[in-house]
Design goal:
Mean pLDDT: 79
Strand content: 15-25%
CATH class of the largest domain: Alpha Beta
Strand order of the largest sheet: 2-4-5-9-8
Number of strands: 17
Distance between the termini: 40 Å
Low-confidence stretches: 169-179, 365-375
Number of helices: 17
Shape: globular
Helix content: 40-55%
Length: 441
């Protein structure tokens, strides 16, 4: 948008003018005020733009590999300066079990965490800001908590603070800021099928807790990502997939993943529309969300299964973590399989292969047997990988075998890695070795 571009162009100049030698201290103070007001107005414009995109359902998730500990450290350091300026105690507790990598929208995750911490610092004049990050493995859920010793929020005002343009803190109404931070944060979390809760008492402080479903990415899966993402087609007749989901972002993602590899796609925004399309489209597979308006996923399955015409249609549930255990078990049991949101395409492909009893076709990449993929693989240091690559480059298979023999003698933990390389070496597959090593360098 041109308006924001002009502000981005203007603000650096207002900051630069403050350092001119031919102006007085009073003029410097005035320029500082101008710059701060400009930053405030730009922040307000960006908040309103974000809110309008959310309300118009035009703000979409952009999923990618996210280094979770790294962005937590970044967010912590960004806000430490603000906390130090107010002489607040400021600490973060990261649980050891926190995954290194998850699949998520990095920019929006950062925005959520920044908003929650900024809010705590803004409304805390003395005491402590405590940040805690955790990951619930059984629920595949990232937990982010911010606890402060600020003014707190009365019970009857707690729902209000998530409304746009509202800023309550005890008996004091703050004019600073847009009043959109918490509203945007809550809506972003809900976009990710997560929840934001508040526990607060006046004069004692507040605890904000965000729970966001995030798919863990195992280290070996990361290293093999280049191989796993090379699916170009599948064997056998073309298959039909009915996507049943009211979230446009999820639907767009599934279409972008499945259409290029020759699936025939149909879409239904709720269970009722899906039931109407079943006899006409007759899909091989239904990718089914649980939470939808009009008719949810559970109701759809219960009705569909009563019709013998649909008995051969497979169903993979695709939904955020269901927090009610009985409901979660019931939905999972009714589906042939389940993939949590945010959707991991590799996991989805694996589930589809099993449910539809199909075989994928890969793009001229080396095939690594399922036994090797199922085992934990520990990768050696980069200098050893470089040495193996150098031997492969000149076709020195004896040199490769010698390096691998020495490696496993020194440390038996490298046996699985060694076995993968030996599989190629045995067939004198120089290109296979090079491609595999390139995925882990």
């Amino acid at each position: 948008m041109k308006t924001t571009s002009e502000w981005h162009e203007m603000l650096p100049f207002s900051k630069l003018l403050r350092y001119q030698k031919n102006i007085t201290e009073t003029q410097k103070d005035q320029l500082t005020t101008v710059h701060q007001c400009g930053e405030h107005l730009l922040s307000l414009i960006n908040d309103i733009l974000d809110m309008s995109k959310i309300e118009a359902q035009k703000l979409e998730l952009s999923l990618s590999e996210v280094n979770l500990p790294e962005i937590l450290s970044t967010i912590y350091n960004i806000n430490k300066v603000k906390a130090d300026e107010k002489d607040l105690e400021y600490e973060m507790e990261k649980i050891v079990s926190l995954p290194q990598y998850v699949m998520g929208d990095e920019r929006k995750l950062k925005q959520i965490m920044l908003n929650l911490i900024n809010n705590a610092i803004k409304f805390t004049d003395e005491g402590k800001i405590a940040i805690r990050a955790d990951f619930i493995e059984t629920e595949s859920t990232f937990v982010f908590e911010v606890k402060d010793t600020g003014v707190g929020i009365p019970q009857d005002k707690q729902a209000e603070i998530f409304e746009p343009f509202i800023q309550h803190a005890g008996k004091k109404l703050f004019a600073e800021g847009t009043g959109l931070g918490l509203s945007i944060t809550k809506k972003l979390i809900e976009m990710m099928d997560g929840t934001l809760t508040l526990n607060s008492q006046p004069d004692k402080g507040s605890l904000f807790r965000a729970e966001i479903p995030l798919q863990r990415i195992d280290e070996f899966d990361r290293k093999m990502n280049q191989v796993e993402n090379s699916i170009t087609a599948y064997e056998g007749d073309r298959k039909k997939v009915l996507i049943v989901d009211d979230n446009n972002t999820n639907v767009s993602f599934l279409i972008s993943v499945l259409e290029p590899i020759d699936f025939i796609i149909a879409i239904a925004e709720n269970g009722l529309i899906a039931l109407q399309k079943l006899p006409i489209f007759m899909p091989d597979l239904v990718l089914l969300d649980y939470r939808m308006p009009v008719m949810n996923g559970m109701e759809f399955i219960q009705i569909a299964k009563q019709n013998p015409e649909f008995k051969d249609i497979k169903i993979i549930g695709i939904s955020a973590t269901l927090h009610q255990k009985e409901l979660k078990k019931q939905f999972h049991d009714l589906c042939d399989d389940f993939v949590p949101k945010p959707i991991d395409s590799d996991l989805l492909f694996n589930k589809m292969k099993e449910v539809l009893n199909m075989e994928w076709i890969y793009e001229n990449l080396p095939v690594i047997d399922e036994l090797a993929l199922s085992k934990e693989v520990i990768f050696p240091a980069n200098d050893l990988i470089s040495a193996l690559a150098a031997c492969a480059d000149i076709g020195d298979f004896n040199g490769i075998n010698q390096l691998l023999e020495n490696l496993t003698k020194e440390n038996a933990n490298y046996a699985n890695f060694s076995n993968i390389i030996k599989k190629y070496s045995k067939n004198y597959d120089r290109d296979g070795i090079m491609k595999f090593l390139n995925t882990i360098q």
